[in-house]
Amino acid sequence: MKTDTSGVPGRGLSFSEDAGPTKETALTKSLGKWDSLVWEEEEGRATLILTFTLWNVKKAGFSKAAKIFEAFETKIHHLESRQAKTSTNTVDDLEFFVKCEVHNSDASALINSLKRVAEDVKAHREDKVPWFPKKIRDLDKCHHLITKYEPDLDHGHPGYTDPEYRKRRAFFTDLAFSYREGDPLPRVEYSAQETATWREVYRKLSSLYPTHACKQYLDAFQQLEKYCGYQEDSIPQLQDVSRFLKERTGFQLRPAAGLLSSRDFLASLAFRVFQSTQYIRHSSSPMHSPEPDCCHELLGHVPMLADKEFAQFSQDIGLASLGSLDADIEKLSTLYWFTIEFGLCKQNGSIKAYGAGLLSSYGELKFALSNKPEYKPFDPEVTAVHPYQDQTFQPVYFIAENFEDAKAKLQSYALKIQKPFTLHYDPFTCSIEVLNTPQKVKTTLKQMKEDLKNLCFALENIS
Ligand SMILES: [Fe+2]
């Protein structure tokens, strides 16, 4: 991944000597492109770059600001002042430049407090490198919902006029929001009506799988039926499914309250965590749901997540998303859409489905493999910017040669996403390491060398 050395902490973090006539010019020159880095966050602490102006500092202006920094237990890394360029008054009007560290949850309050005693307060943070989870427990903060399809808000939702259904959904929302990393996944008792909906979906879709689903899906589906309680008469429990996945690919499930923001959802994939809804669609519309539900997750996503190659592909999209700017998140979620949700692949001379949006939709699965839609080869550069359709069937589907090829193409694409750092996923601690010092790179390399040595030895033994 491309490294921008202007982001190395401590470099260029001061007012420029040759600062131009405005504060913005000086600030832009002094900050460089990537200097305010949220990846400096450690143990919930964030590094902020602040600039502000204090009028007439002699009259206790600075002591008020200093008290605010003290009150929030701010650790100051760098503090610099100079005479305010825009001041027409006295030499006591100063501009300040502060690099400081504060607890993540206090960052906004610190800035707001500072605004009460200083002028022109600017914080340089969110628009540089967005916050991203580094430990699996950080996923407790990644549950921001896109609420447009919820039964409480969407007049077109089949459950909008059913108070019982909305009550049931509130129950599932509470379950998801009260879940914390490490908790056992909640087991749910489904009603007879919910089970009947599942049965109808299960029967209809499983009749299409032998002819429409890819081999990896069929193999996993068979295993799920054998070992994980997949059957038409009961809805599988997330806990059992999660255990099954963990043994096969290291993926695990986490309850989600609904459709999550792309950034949060993709971030969880980086940790091999799949955020899964647990409620079921409304019984009046068993073959269609405007939002993800457990039929979509369990029948669409789960079987594919049991495949090693596909699991790596999913994690790679997640890793690429960490710390990416909004424009890149948009492209990655479009890639996700045309692959993990609506992807097709070549297999033994024919085209098969591997996308969850297809494998959980009877109508679109048939449509996607008819001769009606347009097919294009999977090419991340093209796919990432292709318009998508979330109201009706896709007019265009992208076909992967195979998962290995799709994975390699995605990895090349991810390398081109501009970030000032390289990330490494540590499977032992399930955490993301920012490789921002030579020592960290050396330690990671050492581990890889040992693994490689072991594999070479194994190869020698069996050849
Ligand atoms: Fe999905």
Explain how this protein is built:
Keywords: Catecholamine biosynthesis, Cell projection, Cytoplasm, Iron, Metal-binding, Monooxygenase, Neurotransmitter biosynthesis, Oxidoreductase, Phosphoprotein. It is found in: Cell projection, Axon; Cytoplasm, Perinuclear region. Its EC number is 1.14.16.2. The chain is α/β, with parallel strands linked by helices and 463 residues long. The chain folds into three domains: 45-125, Alpha-Beta Plaits, CATH 3.30.70.260; 136-146 and 180-415, Aromatic amino acid hydroxylase (Phenylalanine Hydroxylase, Orthogonal Bundle), CATH 1.10.800; 423-461, no CATH class. Helix content is 43%, strand content 15%. The chain has 16 helices and twelve strands. It has helices spanning 23-31, 57-71, 107-117, 163-178, 192-212, 215-227, 238-249, 262-270, 294-305, 308-321, 326-341, 356-359, 362-368, 380-383, 403-415, 438-462; strands spanning 45-54, 75-83, 94-103, 119-124, 252-256, 273-277, 344-347, 350-353, 374-377, 396-400, 423-426, 431-434. The protein has a four-stranded antiparallel beta sheet with strand order 2-3-1-4. A four-stranded mixed beta sheet has the order 8-7-10-9. A two-stranded parallel sheet has the order 5-6. Helix 2 (57-71) packs antiparallel against helix 3 (107-117), helix 8 (262-270) packs across helix 10 (308-321) and helix 10 (308-321) packs parallel to helix 15 (403-415). The two termini are 35 Å apart. Fe (ii) ion (FE2) binds at residues 292, 296, 301, 341, 356. Residues 292, 296, 301, 341, 356 line the site of fe (ii) ion.
